[in-house]
Design goal:
The chain has 1 helix and 28 strands. The two termini are 40 Å apart. The strands form 8 sheets. Strands 5, 6, 7, 12 and 13 form a 5-stranded antiparallel beta sheet that branches. The chain has 368 residues and is mainly beta.
Amino acid sequence: MNPTLETHTFAPDDCEVIDGLARAGKRRLLRFTTEVRNTGTLDLSLGDPNGNPLFAMNNCASQFERSEAASYRLLSGASVVASRLNRPLCFQDSVAWDAGAPPAPLFDCNTMQGLQHGWSAIADGSLPGQYIDVTGVSAGDYILELRIDPGGTVVEMSEDNNVVQVPITIGFDGSDKFADALPAAARITVNTTASTKEAGEPNHAGNSGGHSVWFCWKAPPALNVTIDTFGSTFDTLLAVYTGSSLASLTPVTANDNAGGTTTQSRVSFVPTEDTLYFIAVDGANGASGDLVLNLLADTGRLQLSLDAGGELILTLYGVPGRTYTLEESLDLKTWSPLFDVFANPGPTEVPLGPPEANGVRFYRAVLP
């Protein structure tokens, strides 16, 4: 399996991003090699993948792969921390692991897929998509689980050996350096005990700290963004900057204690669209521990009310100059577009007519 951790930056036009294998930006990847052995007494023949709906072309690897051949999960106890489900794989004779196996390979990725008895197919950890994205996963001990043929679509003598679980330790993610700042998400947890403060790094929120970590966030169209450290186990410092290096940082906002607490921090500001912000979190007077970073961007709000004539009025508080699509649902599962709404500065009112007499309606505004 040979699991390894790496940090990789995917461009928006990267093949893996276009094919839906990865997310654009700087990501932390847990790479590993998957070996599938035919331990039966007969060959497994999956046929020609060309024109077969059970196969899909992996454009990045230039090979056909059988759909839903494997699933990968990172587990903490019974909880799934990260996963790559329905991972396609190429089935070809890679290595003869059994001394009694046929002497020469027969199956390959692009003309006839399968696996002779005594042979194994190997998906190397360097292949596109052969990893789990563990960006934001806290340092600690986990179980890496690999499951072959999770849907049970291949007839086998036994499926008892289709799952393997391997203990793995994920170390600190390296985001304690400005140059290695990881993308911020709605919620990220990391342990800062092993982090350090760089030479030339400013004092965040006016305190010398000593165990800082860095995150980056590219602002979408938003009215406001709130970032806090509520849920952390130590006294935090929080600061936001723009700039391309430690020497060129421009402070945006900072906070030590917020919300009536003496340990947690929170900042709110109006972001500039497409601006890259750098978020630093440190511990007051050298404190460290389990950090929880929460980020919430307010991209717009809706309010429903009745006017004096009993008509429904929808009020959109949106990013001025942006067009939202108003959608309707009966069950919060299936949504149907109604019409587009252009957001004015301040509230934008849209009349919807009288309330429906035959049931409840739900509405949302989607910003493309």
